[in-house]
Amino acid sequence: MTIPSSLARAARNAVDTSALLREVPRQASKPKAQLRRYEVSTLLDNGDVAQTRHIAPALPMFEDAFCAFSRGSLVETEQGPMAIEDLMPGDTVLTQDGSSETVVWKGSVTLIPGREDSYGRTRPLTRIMADTFGMQKPLSGVIAGPAARLLGTPGHLRHIYGDGPVLTPASEFQDGMNVIETMPPTPVELFHICLKKHSVIRVDGLQFETYHPGVNAVRLISHSLRSIYLNLFAHVETLNDFGPLLMPRAGDGEVDALTA
């Protein structure tokens, strides 16, 4: 039986990652980066799903691709709400404009939010209480990962971004009452998904974005790490293959400009 080229590439990438890591230059002035195990499921050209496991750096750009939704988060699909852990590439989800789009990639990682990494950073989660943004928004309590972005602008950022549609980190909505930071001392499994194009989907009654590395990704990741990063995504060849952002995205004091 002939192995589909996309499946062979996915398997090869999973194996090649460890080899690439050995080639990454080490800088004596910086602490050694921690590694994480990333689980990936990808929709292949022939309709099959490839499941691979990767060992890659625990750096923000890598982790952000996996750290949006906690286990049990309910994603709106054509068949009704589905838990994020049960969603698979090939399933269709409902987007902001009411259309259906196919999931082409899903990633997951298990981390301990309250544990410091080699740089002294933690990865706090954001707990959103039921009805915080209106009736059934969210439907019940939601725990969003550190990379989750909501469609909306919190009051303290409106003087910067105005009233137009902006994708904002969930942590920016923390108010100490209805939206709070939480850092469990035990392992938490987090997920993220890619559609064929960057989109906004409904999760537990709220509007979250699907994964996109951002238009500034090229300058945020070194050339030596870029190959390791792209190995996590068998459905793309380059950073440009993620396509344009659906709308502006706030974060780190700036708005990612929409690509033409």
Topology:
Layout: H1 5-23, E1 35-43, E2 49-57, H2 60-63, E3 69-70, E4 74-77, E5 80-83, E6 92-94, E7 100-111, E8 125-128, E9 142-144, E10 149-151, H3 158-161, E11 167-169, E12 179-182, E13 188-195, E14 200-203, E15 206-209, H4 217-220, H5 223-230, E16 249-251, E17 254-256
Antiparallel strand pairs: 1-2, 1-7, 3-13, 4-5, 6-7, 7-13, 8-9, 8-12, 10-11, 14-15, 16-17
Report on this model:
The structure is a single chain. The strands form six sheets. Strands 1, 2, 3, 6, 7 and 13 form a six-stranded antiparallel beta sheet that branches. The protein contains five helices and 17 strands. The chain starts with a helix and ends with a strand. The longest helix has 19 residues, at 5-23. It has 260 residues and is α+β, with helices and mostly antiparallel strands. Residues 23-28 have low confidence and may be disordered. α1 packs antiparallel against α5 (223-230). The radius of gyration is 18 Å and the shape is globular.
- The run of helices and strands is HEEHEEEEEEEEHEEEEEHHEE
Question: What is the molecular shape?
Answer: globular
What helical percentage do the residues reach?
Answer: 10-25%
Structural class: alpha+beta
DSSP summary, beta strand count: 17
DSSP helix count? 5
Q: Tell me, rounded to a whole number, the average pLDDT.
A: 86
Q: State the low-pLDDT regions, or none.
A: 23-28
Radius of gyration: 18 Å
What percent of residues are in strands?
A: 25-35%
Largest sheet: 6 strands, antiparallel
Short description:
With 260 residues, the protein is of the alpha+beta class.
